[in-house]
Specification:
This protein is an alpha/beta fold and 440 residues long. The chain has 15 helices and 17 strands.
Length: 440
């Protein structure tokens, strides 16, 4: 399988960086004005959760101040809450280009939603069936399926990595896929090292074998335009707090599958998707916040992308004009992030005694997102993170729940890695601050 062509067939990637007004973008994020020891705080912790757009904050505050109520009541605030919930499902459908808002399920977080779905799918499996997972994934796309398989007597096959660049060994799919394979779970992007996986090709292989597919898009959703209809995945999950929104999980599922699968919830609740899978009272204010995130992306498309040398829109058919705005915004921000990332990689590799994990070749920029992982010789990753933190630079260290990967790389017991993750509100000047501290 040609991973480069597979990735480029899913997402439009450009070699031309648009001239965007990053200062106008930064003005949309109140947190970016925070000072630490007399300097602006630098947020390179985006893979763990981005900063929140003002559009999102405004929506959440407005909901809590004016509309806060439970659902399906015969009074005004409850009816307004119902409308917010409907609008949020519509916004989620536009973000992922789902056919219907009824294919969008909200939950506490991606992990909880995946555990719930694994139980539902597990009820359809039997001893002797097989599933395929990977060593590159966040544990939220590993343990739920692995635990389910143990309970049901299902065999687990694990796709390995190519250690040199932390990409998936695609030959493993051809080796493991067979008529007994019932599910293939794969990450869109590695949350640890930024690898952008060729998921469309993997989904096609899985479907040819008769298997369902689940894509963990948590680490990819902040960086690339996602079209679930084009991918043809059966399920996909992401987290709005990773793309400028509130702490919440969001699951896409093809309607007929959501309708057919059993759900674990109390009896009086709605038995049809999507509410069938939304257990208990949801975070209505978070759903309002997602609407604000989509409004931010619309603002981005109209204000930032329009004057820029914007990448051409995807050839795929999008469900609404708003979905097109979202795609445009994501494509333009992706191009800017790629340029930032290459600047970061080129310069971080000049630091003596530094070990780099993942894709570093600028000719393969389209196969990664702006999340990099490093460690310094003779310095524990946590010590590096502390040193950066004391200088007002926020980064993560450890395994970030990608524990199968750090174990495979032989670095779990020695502290894992230092993760530096960018978003489109970051700047070259911030990267220079990081480089000065790292190399000091």
């Amino acid at each position: 399988m040609d991973s480069t062509s597979e990735v480029e067939s899913i997402f439009f990637l450009t070699q031309i960086t648009p001239m965007i007004d990053v200062n106008r973008i930064r003005a949309q994020f109140p947190a970016l004005s925070r000072q630490f020891n007399g300097q602006p705080l630098v947020y390179f912790d985006a893979p763990g959760g981005t900063q929140t757009a003002q559009h999102c904050i405004t929506r959440m505050v407005d909901y809590l101040q004016r509309t806060n109520a439970n659902t399906h009541g015969a009074f005004v605030t409850s009816q307004e809450s119902d409308q917010v919930i409907d609008d949020a499902h519509e916004a989620g459908a536009d973000f992922l280009n789902a056919k219907s808002r009824d294919e969008i399920v909200f939950g506490q977080n991606m992990t909880s939603l995946t555990f719930s779905l694994s139980r539902s799918i597990g009820q359809t499996l039997k001893e002797g069936d097989e599933i395929i997972l990977t060593r590159l994934d966040h544990d939220a796309n590993f343990s739920p399926w692995h635990l389910m398989a143990q309970e049901r007597g299902v065999k687990v096959n694990i796709v390995d990595i190519n250690e040199a660049d932390c990409t998936l060994n695609l030959d493993d799919y051809e080796r493991y896929l067979n008529s007994r394979t019932k599910l293939v779970a794969v990450g869109l992007v590695s949350n640890a090292v930024g690898t952008l996986n060729p998921v469309k090709g993997i989904i096609g292989m899985a479907h040819a074998a008769g298997a369902l597919t689940f894509v963990d898009a948590v680490a990819g959703a902040p960086h690339v335009s996602i079209d679930v209809q084009d991918l043809d995945t059966d399920f996909l999950a992401c987290s709005p707090y990773k793309f400028w929104g509130p702490h919440q999980g969001m699951l896409y599922g093809k309607y007929d599958l959501l309708d057919r699968l059993p759900a674990y919830k109390v009896r009086p609740a709605d038995s049809k998707p999507p509410h069938k899978f939304q257990t208990g009272t949801q975070s209505h204010e978070s759903q309002a916040g997602l609407i604000g995130v989509i409004e931010y992306l619309q603002w981005f498309a109209d204000t930032i992308a329009a004057p820029a040398a914007a990448p051409a829109p995807s050839a795929a058919t999008l469900r609404s004009p708003r979905a097109q705005q979202i795609s445009t915004a994501m494509n333009v921000s992706n191009a800017y992030e790629q340029e930032l990332c290459q600047y970061l990689i080129e310069n971080v590799l000049k630091i003596k005694g530094l070990r780099f994990f993942g894709i570093r070749d600028p000719q393969r920029a389209g196969q990664r997102v702006p999340t990099i992982a490093i460690r310094l010789e003779n310095e524990h990753p946590h010590t590096t993170a502390e040193r950066l933190g004391q200088n007002g630079i926020c980064v993560w260290d450890g395994n970030y729940y990608a524990i199968n990967l750090t174990e495979r790389l032989g670095i779990e017991d020695s502290g894992g890695m230092v993760r530096i993750g960018l978003s489109h509100y970051n700047t070259h000047a911030e990267i220079d601050r990081l480089l000065n501290v790292l190399g000091g």
